[in-house]
Amino acid sequence: MYIIKNAFQNIYRNIGRNMLAAGIFLLIITMSCVALVVFNDANAIARQYKEGLSTEVLLNVNSIKVSEALEKNETFLIPEITDELIQKMAASKYLKTTIYNAQTEAVADNLKYTTPMDYHSMEIQGVGKAPEKTRIPQYILSGYEDVSQAKPFQNGQAKLIEGGAFPKADNECLISDTLAKLNDLKLGDTFQVKSIFYTDKQGKPLEEMTLKVSGIYHRAYSEEEVDSDNEIFTRYKFLIDPRYTYEPTFNTKFYLKNPKDLDAFAQESYAAGLSEYYSLSTDTVAYDAFVKPIEQMCVISIIFLWVVLVLGAAVLLILSSLLVRERKYEIGVLRAMGMKKSKVAAGLVLESALIMSVCLILGIALGSLIAQPVTDMLLSNQMTHAMNRPSLIANTSSISFDGLATDNVPITHISAALSFTTITELVGIALLLTTIAGTVSAVCAMKYEPMHILRQRN
């Protein structure tokens, strides 16, 4: 009990020296907290993103073979991806899951629309058909087996604001809040749309589609995007029905169980009927551009952590030995009174532990506040360097981001949240530092004989 009481009293008696030690402790804990938060959160994002990139199979047009075919025949058209082929490929034993959708352009004579579709920026179905056989599109219909898998809903850009579930029946659909307000549409209402093409492949007139509003969504747009609310989400089977659509565009994402199975899956796909004018690959461009910068952040943060710990421990070693030398007389008196060396050492360790406990709480609070700005700064710097690498300009896909041909979006934000793992690691660091400081103090104190100390005092 005396040791505990004396430890508390010594903290106040030696307030100046203890404030110096506390400052060192606090700096180390705060910087360690920042480094660990950056490392743990960035590492988790990188691992998650890397897993998706390494297992997602990109189905791309082989531009070299297409160019060769066009040189021989100017009227050459790339073979279509059909629903039948997608279903065969999706049945592969190498796949973990498949997400596919169909898209078609449509018009609705009885509806108002916000902005006409950009006719020139879209791949129009039935390339090679006479323009007079089509209408200028007003809407784009996107059909999914599960509409919740649509990219805008997956990345949080769009969310349901009315209607509790995604379409279940084939003719159910989701419309934007802008479109609903413009046409006074509510849940349960129906409306008619029709394909931009007049006839099917056999020349028969295409039928109108009757869609039922099962939900209304709101979509947020970034500054770079065009504000268009004309996309209508419905069921996949509805859009591949030949009574309503003419050659819808198919978009498919295959996810492998194991990235090493890419070649085997490719061979299986070609055997199933995939044209040689298509190639299968993983998104190495997005990996180099988006994952490597995050991995570099992890390296920087862990190096920073080790530098802080090594330098901090060195300063603590020196400071602890100096502080004990200043307290020689106090230690000599305690030893002369009969206090054992172990109890004197325990008192010094306890003092360090009390100071560290306070610094740990303050350091975690300060570190969690600083971590987000530091994370944002590191992410911005690393992504800027990545985007400026000329080696990343590639042509592996159809969508470009800052000059990079990739369907994947970059990591633009990492939430620097303090996790239980980070707190546990910081507690471990605090215990390590306390042990170092306490041990050095105890060793330095034990080398002095009490009578020698008291004689030197005079």
Keywords for this structure?
458 residues, alpha+beta, six-stranded mixed beta barrel, two-stranded antiparallel ribbon, 13 helices, 16% strand, elongated
Please, could you describe this protein's structure?
With about 450 residues, the protein is of the alpha+beta class. About 50% of the residues lie in helices and about 15% in strands. The protein is built from 13 helices and 12 strands. The strands form 2 sheets. It has a 6-stranded mixed beta barrel with strand order 2-3-8-5-7-6. A hairpin with a 2-residue loop joins strand 11 and strand 12. The longest helix has about 45 residues. It is elongated, with a radius of gyration of 33 Å. The relative contact order is 0.18.
Briefly, what is this?
With 458 residues, the chain is of the alpha+beta class. The protein is built from 13 helices and 12 strands. The longest helix is centred in the C-terminal third of the chain and has 47 residues.
